[in-house]
């Protein structure tokens, strides 16, 4: 059996911390740490919906993603200064939005919008997955805020959602890649799973050699194991179950 | 057994036509039709590489994707007039590029670049998958052009690559969704597979309810069946095997 | 008498093909080939007008022009990726729009808009002229579609309009320049003429030495000859006269 | 015989003033007034050429055009604030550049560039034509500056160039349209002519009904008459002939 | 006592000329010259306010600032061509707007907007200060125009406002820096003062060594002296007091 | 004596915390809290300088400023998504850069650049001043990092620099405005001072009525008092004096 670069066992998550209520102004917020990766997630409630939903009686959940210029080893350009968001940024924020909408009853929200801002303070791999896991906490807290204000009558969240990356390291499936492992992995897959075990998103990419169906299933097995732990962290953070 | 909207059996591809050598100026080209979806793929060879590869002795393959404004039922904005590419466009062109690099020996190319332009003339679902399948033909022909000019010594393509979408329609897995089916599907997955059966990319998304592992495997089974046929079309188009 | 680069006689058009009804979704469409130049023209009907016409009871006809990146000998930048349309693109689409409005009774349209998209699939000189000639067919077919749906009561097109370029080659006037001839011509002029013989636009440019009034008249004479043939092609394509 | 809106006879220019040496820093400059239209033209010399001319031993002349926001009856958007130049602006600056290059021996310049900035201080019709006429003076003075500094050995300007607009007013050809006349004209044509009588650019546009060949020739006749006077003003401004 | 680069005494303004009514179309206008610096200021009245003031019964005064490309020693990029305004441009136009609003009774305006366009024709230092001083004249004249049309009932300008730069040259405070002095000054401060002696804006910047409180007060003393003269020029330009 | 909105005495700073070494990857970093305002400052070292300094042997210090979308009471647009930085953002980052350069011996740096990124995590007034104060700590630590790596031989920081805002509340000068106080202040001034007591920047703005010279001096007196305390916090954070 090989030893992966981080020295963790193949099925070990990094150290996970979910800290709720960290942003003074936001209706819901959570700072998530997965090892050295640190993402600040805020949920902002607005009493209007995008044009395509006006008059529908239905709400909307969307996400924006950003990275502080020095979240990474070498400083990256500030996207606001460059004047546009990269393709990677847009791809990630679309994924976060889809993942959260998958467990939200948009009709139960009524015509309001919640924007999840996921800003990476420190990046060490797995930022999109950490964003989804942390954003669920922020969203849950924002809905609780709305319930307490009687803006909505029932909790629109139908289930939990969390995400984790897995990869193939020297042919073996390993859980929760850090940056160093990710850059050396043969394949890299992000899984977004619900508390009830359903698949919301699967994104697997071969970095070098293609991977096999059996390998895909091994990766999925690890992801189930990892998200199981993340669901417990989420429940603790919002004080349920 | 349900009947899917298109009336096709669950494992039937749409009518496929791959027409090579359709662009007068490009080093390689292919027009692909999958039912009513029609994409023009061209491969353009340039004797330079992006900055991060200069001096590496290695080549690069990249892709750009576009849609004519009236490829769709209602006219869309021209991205050049809006002044930026949408997140969807950028996500698709990154996928096409990764898929083709997965079967290319970049070192065997030497320091040159090939850009695959995939322009959708008519859209009826599955445009990103059709782009990958057609782009492989254009890329193969461009490499053949380079071989005939003695720019490269060996064929850098190591394998075939093709893609197809599958989805869940009333709980049943169906192959090669058209636009109408895609908008009604419960889940939608794009599979990029190699000729030898390896997985290059898996992108599965639940549109409504999450899907199960068993369903993911059913979708993958159909994708293997469909890409098997696409590989034969590709070989016929480039005149091999 | 000199022989022009293409070998055609001075008053010969390239081979012309106008193929109507080529786009599945558009209300009107036409693919035009002038020799190796190939342009796809679609007409899209929308039930609204620009702000300056709201409440006027009058319609609007406008055009957008684009070129696929590998329509040309060497690949050009994709304008959507660069984030703006070039001055050349904007100049051409303004010309196409003006030319078609010159033969349209905008009041007879009522408050609706038609956008002509002219996308160059292969470029070999004369793309703006081919766009105008092909767009007239697409516009005619779109109006026929509106008549058949009783959206309008009478045909708003008052006349035909077509365009052709002419140039001076070694002092002699020649008709319908291809790319090679255009780059060698001493002067280059585009003429937009109506079926009844009126001038809608004249754009003459000296590339090297200025040209004389007599030369301008020779070029205009050839343009009359060439557009006469193009008008017959247009009528055949739409099935009139 | 009809009376045109301005009350001028059909062949009368507006009052013309060409004031040279008006910009403190520019190598050449001229403020031109044609009636109420006022344009500031400056010529800036730079010791470098665009990439496509590097190493060619040849120079380049280009132009930029702008309009102060309140040059017009109602304030227009500042193009710098909107973040892009309009199609009209780009079309005009391309025309000015082509017109001046037509009378410049680019080889005699050596590898340097001159940029003509034409900024409209007050607009009352004919701003593109006034820009060309005034820019020639600025360019001439800039070349004289280069001669005096021994940067070039001979005057690269081979001829004069000037421009004027003409139009059809109630069927009659009239010279030098002001804004009010331009908006009422049946056709509008800009002619760019050289001192020796050659045509550099002809741009005729029917605003309503198409125009005839005979009308085109009447307009051209007036333009010869008008530019004849402008050439005298130019020579006086630069102190030749 | 040192001699400053311009040879002026330490408390001497450059030659000042305020020329009102210079723009044909604007409701108010003024060309201001401070030595070689020349700025054209126009005031444009519009019968609408920004969204945040709709329904408030209150008006708005804002400013835009620009510089002709060859206003400077070496030609600068045209901001419209670059596609964005620099930080310096935005900083200056915000300053001009704030300064004029400080002496305007926005309620007395009713719901209308006035935009001050300050375009630098020649730059030789102090352009932002000259813009403020000249814009006050343009604004005063625009309000007079509105009074004469009975659009407003009382003059909304409560006081005069003018600005001047001062600096430290070899330790000594000097008034009204030109470009050459500004580039050599140890500190540079812009003061915006009202006719009644109040401070509206103070912006002091150490270029090299920090400056002291005593030096700040010397600079302010000079600014009072200089704006006292500018107020007289303003009153003369608008024909009051 | 009035009571200011925050209940603090007129010369009381908010609670100040400077936390160094908070960013894993940056060469220097500091999180600064001034009451509820919280800014993350990182210093990134790069071994190159802007074009205008190449070959000069001199270094450069610059700053970028950003605000997380939900740092404020209501969510603001993400500047990266809007595609440009606001004028306010650009004005602030220019101020931060100038302030730090004022206490840096650029020659002692050699040809390298340091970029200070100041990202506001929570905004409650005074973010630009907090950015300067915190950025000095990050810059000091980055220089220490360079000294420890022998990239530079001597500490290029010549002095400390810190900033604080002051304002007039009901005619009385008060120190360190929070958001609520800032929005109600009659005047608002930012002072950037050095450890030795010199003035680097003074920016005073009357929000309503102009202010007097005596009031400006009162504000400056408070700023001296406040920055004195901030200098002690800075020294403690970097472990000197």
From TrEMBL, chains A, B, C, D, E, F:
InterPro entries: ExoRNase_PH_dom1 (IPR001247), ExoRNase_PH_dom2 (IPR015847), ExoRNase_PH_dom2_sf (IPR036345), PNPase/RNase_PH_dom_sf (IPR027408), Ribosomal_Su5_D2-typ_SF (IPR020568), RNase_PH (IPR050080), RNase_PH_bac-type (IPR002381). Coiled coil: none annotated. Its EC number is 2.7.7.56. The keyword Nucleotidyltransferase applies. Pfam families: RNase_PH, RNase_PH_C. The keyword Transferase applies. CDD domains: RNase_PH_bact (cd11362). SUPFAM superfamilies: Ribonuclease PH domain 2-like, Ribosomal protein S5 domain 2-like. Residues 13-142, 159-224 form the Exoribonuclease phosphorolytic domain. It comes from the Bacteria. It catalyses: tRNA(n+1) + phosphate = tRNA(n) + a ribonucleoside 5'-diphosphate. Keywords: Nucleotidyltransferase, RNA-binding, rRNA processing, Transferase, tRNA processing, tRNA-binding. Phosphate binds at residues 88, 126-128. Homohexameric ring arranged as a trimer of dimers. HAMAP family: RNase_PH. Phosphorolytic 3'-5' exoribonuclease that plays an important role in tRNA 3'-end maturation. Removes nucleotide residues following the 3'-CCA terminus of tRNAs; can also add nucleotides to the ends of RNA molecules by using nucleoside diphosphates as substrates, but this may not be physiologically important. Probably plays a role in initiation of 16S rRNA degradation (leading to ribosome degradation) during starvation. Belongs to the RNase PH family. This is Ribonuclease PH.
